Structures are given as structure tokens and as C-alpha cells.
Amino acid sequence: MHIPSQMIVVVAALALAACRQSSPSTEPSEQAQLASQRPASIPASDLAAVAELFASPKGRDWAEYDRLSNVAWIDPIPQRRAGRYSRQGKVLLLGFSETDIPNGKPGMEYAAVKRNEGESLLTAGGTATTVQSISISKPLYSDDYAGVLKRQFAPDAEISTIAQHCAANEYAEGAAMGAFYAIRLASGNDVYVQARQEDGGKYTAGFTVFEMTSTRPTQAIEAMNCKTLP
User: Fold this and answer.
1) CB atoms < 10 A from the CB of 207, how many?
2) CA dihedral defined by 160, 133, 195, 117, rounded to 10 degrees?
């Protein structure tokens, strides 16, 4: 019996379609597997975003900091202050709640303002062409430096104490001793943090400061008579 060629083509097409339906594509599972292998790239906090940029090869360039949407810049560009250049902005440290914060104003203007204790001042410092350090100043004294830092970074960041029991400023009333930390970021880059407390005068309740450097602060550790850890 002669079978028309058109019918052969139709039957072959139907068979091919049935075969495809019976063998589901593996693409969705493969994509899910790849997605699960990707490291988390979203910083855990404003501080983490700043640290990732500062520790990167682009971290010395003032212009790169304009890209940080996490920072509400006060200074539109770096300002010359006391022979150095700096740029200030506002960031939020995670893990704090609303409390009464002294406004720092003297006399009749003094008042306590209820706001998030994590609302902090960021200062990028360096030369006219290069960013050399990052400092974040939080209102009120916080003794658990490591705990504050751990709340800012994703779990894959490695935070280790490299020095502790660092002498506090003798003029900083009520300030506790400081410490130094090494942080291996999710990107694989390293950043070093000095944690200390500063007396802000009688119209404040003091500040906790976290200062980042890109190299191990060996001289600063020695100068403050810290106890170094292996």
C-alpha cells in the first residue's frame, strides 16, 4: 500500500513531539543548582558595603564612593580639613534600636533626641587623590566590638581579633579599652578595623569608633600597648 509522503512527515513530527514531552528538560534543575552555588553578593549592611569597596582595588579612588547608595553623603566632594582631605556621610549600623541620644549642643540648646543608636557618621580620609582610611563613629559606648562587627557582615565573612586590651585615651571619661580586628570579606579581600571609644565632651554620651585600614596596623597596635593574639 502506498503511503503519501505528506502523511509520513506528519507522523514523524507527532512522534518527535511525543518524545520531547516524555523527556522533560533538565535546564530548570541545572539552573537551580548553579544558583545554589553562587555566593551571596549583597552586603549585609552599610558598613559591609563600604568595607567591600575600601578593600577592593578601586577603594583608593574618591570617585568610586559616589556609587555607594548606602551612604547619605553630607559632603558632595572631599573637603580639606587640617591639612588632610575627608568626606563625611551618614550610615546605619545594624542591630541597634531607638534610644535617647544627646544632640551635642551646649547650653539651652542641649536636648536628648530619640533615634536609632546605629545612625552613625562615616568619614573617609586621605590625600587629595587617594582614600587611605574609613572611620565610622556611633553614638554611645558599646563594649562588644566583635558583636557589633559580626552583625554588619554576612556569615561567610571571617572576623578575628588580632589585638585587645588597648589603652583607652586617658582623657576619655568612662571609655573602655580598644581592640583590633582582621576581617576576611566575602570577596576574599582583607580589611583591618580598630575599635575604640572616644569621649565627646559633656554634651554627648561618648562615641564608639570603628576605623578601617587596608594594611595591618602594626605600629598603632604597638603604640597603644595592646595585647596581641596569635
Assistant:
1) 21
2) -110
Residue 89 near residue 122 (C-beta atoms within 8 A)? yes
* pLDDT for the residue numbered 94: 96
The DSSP 8-state label assigned to residue 69 in this structure reads: T
Q: Would you state the cell numbers that stand for residue 129, as one nine-digit string?
A: 587623590
CA 56/CA 185 separation, integer angstroms: 10
Q: 3-state DSSP helix/strand/coil percent for the chain, to nearest 5? A: 30, 35, 40
Q: How far is CA 177 from CA 15, 90, 144, in A?
A: 78, 26, 11
Helices marked H in 23-84 — which ranges? 27-37, 46-55
Task: Find the mean pLDDT for residues 173-188.
Answer: 92
Rg, the chain, Cα only: 27
* DSSP letter for each residue of 159-171: EEEEEEEEPPPTT
Residue 109 and residue 103 in contact, taking contact as beta carbons nearer than 8 Å = yes
Check residue 31 and give its pLDDT: 36
pLDDT tens sequence across 88-128:
999 999 999 999 998 888 888 888 889 999 999 999 999 99
pTM over 0.85: no
Average pLDDT over residues 135-160: 95
